[in-house]
Amino acid sequence: MYLIAIVCLLHAYGSVSAYTNIYLENTTLGSATNDKGYYIIHKIPPGTYNIIFSYIGYESSIIDTIIEENQNLTLNVELSPSVLEVEEVTVSAERTRFERTVEVSHIVFTPREIKSVPSLFEGDLIKTLQLMPGVVTMHDLSNKLHVRGGSPDENLVLLDGITVYNPSTHLGGLFSTFNPDAVGYAELYAGGFPANFGDRLSSVINVDTKEGNSKKYTGKVNVGLVTSKFLLEGPIPNGSFLLGGRRTYFDALVWLYSKIRNDDISLPYYFYDLIAKVNFNVSSENRFTLAGLSSTDVVSFLENTQGEADEQIDLEWGNRGLSLRWRLVFNPKFYGEMIGAWSNFLTHLEYIDYTDTTENLNLYEDITDYTLKCDFNYFWDENHTIDFGIDGKVMTVGYNYDITEEVFFDQEQKMNIVSAYLQNKSFLLPNILSVKAGLRGVYYDRGKRFSFDPRLGIKYLFKPNTAFNLAAGKYSQFLVTMNSQESYFSVFDFWRPVSETQKVPTAYHVVAGFEQWFDEKTKFTIEPYYKKYYNLLTPAIDEIFFSEPTDSLKVGDGYAAGIDFFLKKTMEDVFGWISYSFSYTKRKFEGGYYSPRYDRRHNLNIVFGFTIPHSVPLIRNGTLSARWYLATGLPYAQDIARYRYYYWDPRFSTNQGEWTTIRSARDAFRLPLSHRLDLHIEKNIRIFGLDGSWYIDVINVYNRKNIAFYNVDYDEDPPEIKEYVLLPIPIPSFGFNLRF
Amino acid sequence: MKKKSRIRSIGTTLFQLSILLLVCIACERNYEEEFEPQLNIFGVLANILQTQEIIVDRTYPIDEPSGPVIDDALVVLSGNGFIDTLEFSYSSQKYLTEPLNVAPLTTYELIVEKDGFDTAHATTTVPGNFTIFFPLFNDTLTFQDTILFARSTAAALYSFVFVHYTGGFGPFFWYEPDPFDSLIQIPVGDYLDEPCTGLFTIYIVAYDSNFYEYYYPEDDSIAQAGVTGGVGLLGSTWTEATSVYVLFE
């Protein structure tokens, strides 16, 4: 007999729960859900049982049931957050994951961690990811992720199964696409990821929005300094829904200010996000989830002269997507999940000169993909699981550039990728030695190429609290960005398929891991890694806007090596982590190896948060969290000398010298050490009978002037080297939440 | 008791690791590329000049104020039996040779010495002389015509300069030859489109490969065309001329 359960967490952290503990009271039977929230117990003798579902931070659910001979029992269970600390729940999901999975470089985030990490204006998933070991960011305001020597386009970013092509688009990268209130589950694979993920060289960021509350209607409103957000959840027949939105309103405030002061000032920029999710349980074995995302930035500027329109600029860019997921229990041993998804990233610039239409400009760039993905899990027995699946993508990249109706280029490139994988997880020695071996086969229709990417993971639990891990694999990527991934600032990513004549960019990962649990809530990991790249593609110059096909890209190799340390403690009233990475990244495109701009040698992050004791006035029972980082400088190139460049003009036979510069090697210099302290205080309150909270963030508390880059001013003699600091002062921000 | 001891041991290990980490971070070198100033040479030897001119300048570290060209260097030009120590001319701010008619396909060497700098060496091979087949003296040249001449040996680039008989400059363009052409053919209409008539002398100037490298570098690297131990250019040209009546209508 089998017991099948799909567990769903409710309310604040609502998402399908990975690694929820389930056991039959007064027996030795029990286990934990897998990463899809699915779980099975074999061979339960007939009888009456109390089945207990527990997850740290949630009220345990106890179901009293009678199990009969040859009966298959399926339970869908939802857990609600606990009001008080549940001391008896001592086994956290992470701890369960440690015992049950063969995964290295895998970190899961709770919404609490995302929202509690101090951040400029509001908590942000990408900002939280930047604090993880192996992740490097290029400056204080960057929202790009460089994972273990990889460039940002080597990260696979998924939101409810939708590929997000440009997750860091808002306000020059200050905000990511992910509305933090709507995030239910987020995980990062920093390397060595298993065969069910592919199409990227470095990492996987997999995000699921909350499931929506199926018991009652709830909502949350957040008003911040720059944005306001709302989130609504509630039941529908046989399911639940979630609807969230966010918009900046600086433009409206500036408009209001200009009206009051009768000034002619405006801020022609805003962004908004909409996210929606509907869950529908057709039966206990069939569950459908429809999720959608629309995230858009708009710059709209109209210049008037004496009441007449002079010129107009409209720039719009954003991610949007839709996915339909069907979770299906075929039989007690066979579970499947099918996703159909559409994803699009669009950039459109239109310039209209009403006085001289020959100057009109129209630029258009978009990437669209349609994905059909099926994942299946077959539970052979307690020690043996087989996963397999197929993934088909149809993609179109279009780009158009015309001035006054003269088309400079108008191209549409199509690509199809079909992938299939098979992986087998076995406990060779039960609860001691487990192996996860997989193979991912990929067919790429441009050039009709096949790639076979083997993956291997081994975990050796040589003590109950100590394990050694090993992961290795080959990774291929068929889509690259045309703009330089070494740019300090970039808002847009322009994706292109690898052309028929180019070799497919490939990476090989080897990750060794040591994991130690000091108690049930504190873990420490050490992970040395080595990553070798082949056939990388990069633009010939640093900055490319709307550009040409990938044939103009330079081909190169590279490698990254390093060691990551991670100490994390998660309790109800205290949480935090220390991550330290030592990394060494090199790339080679024509000439010798060099350090790319994101080659940060040392990177230390300390995050600590706790519940403020009752004895502290005003903010008693609030939360205080702090983040401090220390990082060595990034490499950069600089003008190191100048000389007069003389010209020979055969008409005049005279020579004139113009100053020209001698630039250093691209990695000849390194920026100085940077460090910074950020604080976040949040206090729960009640307003008008509703629960709420206010929060204050202070970024750069002790006013550290971290240098982001240098520039040389040639108007002076000698030229003056100027320092540029992105956070010149401590920056406070605040807001409040209201829940109903 | 055992637990306390274990916690203390962990604490000690973490403290030691922290110290090690801080030492590692402190030892991280924010290295800078040392830049040694070099001599900056510029000279283009030309058969149409009686006196050859060399500019001797220097490079400046980015934080150093600029100065005038160098007037006290030892500058020696030699080749084809000719050797001369050049004198600095304060009026032109250049080093000038004795009268020198450069010879075609001859290699000239320049040595520049200045205290505090590495000695710069430079060489150039003068392009070969060549014959113009069309237009010849007193021919009429129109947009429909093709300028025809034999390739200059060792030439990497040509320029065409039209000089009006009154001394004014007319049309001008550059031409990069195909490496395998022995006969150069220039359809005039492909390069010129401005109406122009009158008596002109066409100067066809052949440039050596150093000159080409200096003006069309393959990458952003420092200009060191024919120069070692410094930057700049030592190039050479060979010029042939013909006088024609231009009828560009």
TrEMBL record, chain A:
GO annotation, biological process: siderophore transmembrane transport
One example GO MF annotation: siderophore uptake transmembrane transporter activity
Domain TonB-dependent receptor plug: 123-199
Gene Ontology CC annotations of this record: cell outer membrane
Gene3D superfamilies given in the database record: Carboxypeptidase-like, regulatory domain, TonB-dependent receptor, plug domain
Pfam families: CarbopepD_reg_2, Plug
Highest rank taxon of the organism: Bacteria
InterPro entries for the chain: CarboxyPept-like_regulatory, Plug_dom, Plug_dom_sf, TonB-dep_rcpt-like
Record keywords: Signal
PANTHER family assigned: HEMOGLOBIN AND HEMOGLOBIN-HAPTOGLOBIN-BINDING PROTEIN 1-RELATED (PTHR30069:SF29), TONB-DEPENDENT OUTER MEMBRANE RECEPTOR (PTHR30069)
Official protein name in the record: TonB-dependent receptor plug domain-containing protein
Originating species: candidate division WOR_3 bacterium SM1_77
TrEMBL record, chain B:
Superkingdom field: Bacteria
Record-linked InterPro entries: DUF4249
Listed Pfam families: DUF4249
Protein's name according to its UniProt entry: DUF4249 family protein
Originating organism: candidate division WOR_3 bacterium SM1_77
